[in-house]
């Protein structure tokens, strides 16, 4: 049974629905990104209060990152089965519960359960596979651009939440910062309930730029969402493009969310920079990432996505390799140059990766991209934990930054090897069951 509101009572014109859905998705994605930005500014306060090592706290972050990615393809399959609204609403409620209960923790396992499992699963419902689902169903024209804008919401979330949480953690402790996440998640739920819709046909319209006389999209899968997600993985894993995209995206995650988002603030603090200043710099990365990702979406509609990925990874690797010599006790011009340069590249990789997934996997692209994104988060988790261990063992993050620079060169090579599909709108993966 459909859970959508009939067109007559929607209050919106048919041609307004794609933009209303995109705007709602933007807010949900922005808030989810803000929720995930909390660990970077709370590592040192937790270390100070409980005496837990950086590696112990990073382990909870790693569980969060892995589940955020692994849940993504199943969330995409659940969206096909039950609709986006139900899945995203459930995810936001789980985030609210996990973050709210975190204020009562007094043992590392509780941190892993709440920060790692609850928030990891909850934010996984609004991961980047959600972007692929929204753009694939609601847009034909401007698909790359909208993909870039929605991806930029991830950076906007850090921009909004990071300075606030850093300030609260410094002045009132980490618990009020955690409660801000709870309040933010609950405030977004009504917006999702009233405006997020599953498919254009549910409100009597078509995707933006679509032919009104085009055939209806494939019916929703009737089997279990888990079976559907695993079937898609089985078919995609038989192809080279899947592994090339997944490998490159794993490195993408390792060199952004896992390393920089999690460890930039404590790394800068090691060089004498106040945590609030470092958090502010990380938020500025988000400012430039918004511009860079939107531009990347625009470029993806016009330039071979593989060429974009090669350029992005090489430029990112170069910036990370020189970061150790730029960090210091204050925000000097060289570190500002890094922030601007790196920010423009932060998640610019997403629009071309989504585009290549759609080229090769067609209507299955949201679920396939969910699995590709799972590799992104596995890479993130490895980097988050690995960098924490390196910091504990060597007293420095230098080796982590240099290693990340080398991995980016590997990602550029993997992107070069991705073949172009024969037809941009035709998948090359055979459909075997569903």
Largest sheet: none
In one word, what is the shape? globular
Order of helices and strands: HHHHHHHHHHHHHHHH
Strand content: under 5%
Helix content range: over 70%
Structural account:
With 434 residues, the chain is mainly α. 74% of the residues lie in helices and 0% in strands. The chain contains 16 helices and no strands. α3 packs antiparallel against α15, α6 runs antiparallel to α7 (143-171) and α6 (128-138) runs antiparallel to α15. It starts with 16 loop residues before the first helix and ends in a 17-residue tail after the last helix.
Topology:
Blueprint: H1 17-36, H2 38-50, H3 54-82, H4 84-102, H5 108-124, H6 128-138, H7 143-171, H8 174-195, H9 225-236, H10 240-270, H11 275-300, H12 305-322, H13 333-345, H14 350-361, H15 365-394, H16 398-417
Helix pairs in contact: 1-6, 1-7, 1-8, 2-3, 2-7, 2-8, 2-10, 3-4, 3-5, 3-6, 3-9, 3-15, 4-5, 4-8, 6-7, 6-15, 7-8, 7-11, 7-14, 10-11, 10-14, 10-15, 10-16, 11-13, 11-14, 12-13, 12-14, 12-16, 14-15
Comma- or semicolon-separated keywords:
disordered N terminus, 434 residues, disordered C terminus, globular, 16 helices, mainly alpha
Condensed summary:
The protein is mainly alpha-helical and 434 residues long.
